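Predict the 3D structure for this chain.
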Amino acid sequence: MMPDYELGCRRVIPTNAYLPALALGNVDVDISGIECITPNGIRTKDGKEISLDVIVYATGYFAYSDMKKALTFEVRGLGGRSLNSEWEAEAVSFKGITVSGYPNYFKVNGPNTGSGHSSQISYMEAATDYIVKAICAVKRSRRIKAIDARRDLQDAYMADMRRKMRKTVWQNAACTAFYRKNMTGEVTSLSPEPVTRFILSRKWFRMSDYHPMS
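Done. Predicted structure below.
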């Protein structure tokens, strides 16, 4: 159970009780894998029958490591563009919320908006507040029907994210993780920004960051 990877490669658990808990008399660590669920519990791959009252299914998630599974429905943009296909090649966005070429498309927990060290709720709240402000700004104008993120600002934003990411253990660590494309490539899920910077940079919606469409 001792980590064989750099500190921060996986989410840090700030406690001194985790490893001792695994050594308690009523705890059994079995890493052989589950072969199947039985009427009374589980059968492990090495043949043990284990009776259980509760099974907690917590096997992880894809996030943006597998783009075919990151978007569960088809997203189409201007000129028939497919966000699903584009994100398979390169996961880009503006502030992790909007995508140039996809007017009025807003996303919570978009690319590079995950937290590797803090509560994800604060990130989701910041994105949601930004989206509400964007919608309200559009509704205040009878002339504007949609907004589309400026490509130049999106490109600058992504370049800044990648520059900052190169300084993190997430991009530099020699480990596989859910937050990397195909588990070992570019970090596509986590944000390299400090929590306060992430929140403050999305606190105000600026119409000048978008192309208004009537």
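The chain has a mean pLDDT of 90.
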